[in-house]
Amino acid sequence: MTSLSRLLLATTAVLLGAGAARAADGAEVLDSACGACHAREEGGYDRIDAVRKTPEAWDMTVQRMGRNHGVSLEPEERAAVVRYLADTRGLSVAETEDWRYILEREPVAQDLGPNARMSETCGRCHSYARVALQRRTPEDWRHLVNFHLGQFPTLEYQALARDRDWWGIAQNEIMPFLAETYPLGEAPPAADLDLSGEWPVAGRQPGRGDYAGLLTLTATESGHDAALRLDFADGSSESFTGSGALYGAGEWRASLASPEREIRQVFALKEDGVLEGRWFELGRDVVGGRLTAARAGEGAAPRILGVSPGRLRAGETAEVLVTGVGLTGELQLPEGLTAEILSASDREVKLKLSAPEALGAVSLALGEAAAPEPFVVFGALDRISISPETAISRVGDGGGPIPRTPAQFEAFGWLNGPDGAPSTEDDVFVGRFPAQWRTENFDAAAEAMRDADYAGSIDQNGLFTPGVAGPNPERPMMANNIGNLKVVAEVEDAGRSLQAEAHLYATVQRFVDALIR
Amino acid sequence: MKIRPLSALLGVALALPALSRGEARDYIIAPSRPDKLVVVDTEAMAVDKVIRIKDAGPTPMVPVLSPDAKTVYAIVNRSESVVKIDLESGETLARVDFSTPERRVKALFGMDISPDGSTLAIFQTPVKLGTTHYEVEPTSIAFYDAETLELKREAPSPRQITLMMYSADGAKLYAIGRNLHIFDAQTGEMIEERPIQGWENDKRTPPDVLAVWSQYESSGVMSIPFYSFLLDKEPTDPEAGRTGLFTLDRETGESVMRDVEAMDVFYFSTAVNPAKTRAYGAYNVLQSFDLTTGKPIKRVALPRSYYSVNVSSDGKIVWLSGALSDVAAYDAETLERLGHVDLPEGASISLNSVRLFSRPD
Q1: Which residues in chain B come in under a pLDDT of 70?
Q2: Which of residues 317-356 of B touch A (CB under 8 A)?
Q3: Are residue A327 and residue A247 in the same domain, yes or no?
Q4: Are B133 and A149 inside 8 Å of each other by CB?
Q5: Alpha-carbon torsion angle A277, A282, A283, A284, nearest 10
Q6: ipTM
Q7: Which of A11, A50, A141, B108 shows its CA 20 to 30 Å from the CA of B245?
């Protein structure tokens, strides 16, 4: 384990479930350590019962109580109180739905407030998601905004604040909006479930490709032991073991390691019993993958978790892997698509598919279970795009404590759809395609500074690795290895070369990081 | 620490106009992290004195000189205290801590002393610290006895005030906020307001002003750069973004908002020469402006960023400082770099106000 990952582990260990003490201890810590200042009244603990938030947000608050108010807790006490608070004063998964990217550290996401006023006021130092993932009484929203200006008195002098009556707006517009939009409401009961069992999974790691696999959970006294095996479509596989816990109504957090890397899982347990979310590398959270898992076994509702690859070129034959649970139903194919079943079990069906002609987006099903995404039978792509369209990478390493933050790009293939016009509603997403990747200077200023030569390099999996931190004596004015770049992907398809561009800001380190950015 | 006499750097021909003995000599006083006020002798081009202040961290911020230049006041201690220091001995003569355990009070940027040296006016922003929650309280201007640092009175003021400056006759106190607020210096009552953000709102977006550098002493003219966009131009039009200069003359009370050029670079701050004919702006470039025509004159690139600008008493040298840890001299006419003085220990000046004062030799 590197010293950095040890450090990160120390700061995030609280939510990893490992050794998280039982709920009873959390209640005790709350009473003794927090109750000292937060008096227990009829409505519960002062302030603490006026807010509901995610496990990460509870941990951030408890950390602040330590940093700013001298509340010193042993790591086990901190873990216990955070878990207890998340269990008793958490959000339902539905309440988190639009904002989970910030918990998942999903790099392909846009953080948008409900309007310009809210974004400029409450989404400029941190994500707006940090705000939208909380519920408070009107009075507590007022307290929170007072805390902000009281704690950061220069706030009203910053750009997007000094040009307006910030405190007037905060009191007359922002506080009422927060109170009305994110009212306290009721905490959902903690799920407190035994998740033991085998959970087939399907997903994709951008830059590496689709995977299927198995998540095995075993209930323990304080949470669950977890083992994860991922079998990638490229033939490689990786196995992780570790532990995790279910917080509140359905927040799964776990920490696992393979011989190569440590990862963290941030999943939601959905109402239909499916676990869904993202895992990412500790200290390099851009690298990771989305994942869906469903528990297998007697009585598991038939469900397809993934179909890989999700496309077939007309006139060709492809082996397609369908992953899921309870896959015993009969294969249902649209007309024009024929299949040979190569192997079949209740968790995995291997098909050999062929179609003489392009069909566009069609649906596949096994009995009741429909594939989550349309299957596409296509002749030739109409265009490609790059995801994400805009990305940020950060310099790092170079002897400093902060590692580099890479950026991961993927090339998406598209059909124009029935209207024949590109970039319209009816365009058909065909999937990710291997591409030739390169970077160029974004504009004349970047050209003059030769950003493309210094800012970093992109590999043929679309992973951009930025330069090292610190002044570069080779650059004019000893500039850092920052840059403004165009990322170009070229896809050869049906004898045609298709091209797309994205924008990459290769910038400086993130010096202050938080569990919820 | 390097001591570089300017004459040695420049040779005789380029030497600064020699000041004969008995005349006043310019000094610069620069707050630097974590607890220092560094006095630079501008003629010797050397550090004259380093004053260390107890419990001043992370940095002293706004220094203010008494009219006789014998005493310096400075905001210190996370902007929560003011100290009175004897400039000769470097001794702290008095100190006031604004905050109490129940109430945190910060003095961010605005402080000035009345021309008669009797009163120190300080803009304060308080927050009440409850056991489990904070409450933002209204801002005010606090008037302290400059001799004893006793609080004489407080007057309510708008929020978001940065710089403050007394009128030359001591009757008024000017405060820069979202507009120019003018207070009766005796009663503390706000008697007038002139538009800054409200200026030409039919033509342009509200001017954006970041005015945190007190540096008006050699001219008696406060000067602040501001930025806005013309409403009748496409935002992509290079002429749409405009740089403006606000000036306020403490002698006449006249204030002017003027548009000086297309916004192609930023200035963190500007200062005016004693003749009141030129203004100088600095950040990544040094720029001179003609205040009679309101037009830019000359621009040179700077080897690094400088935040603050002072003009010498004779108007011949522009002193740049701030950000890092040196004070650099530029020819006020040609904008040529003449030399620089490094501050001790490489301690940075950051965003602090750097002041210029004159004292008989």
Answers
A1: 1-22
A2: none
A3: no
A4: no
A5: -50
A6: 0.91
A7: B108
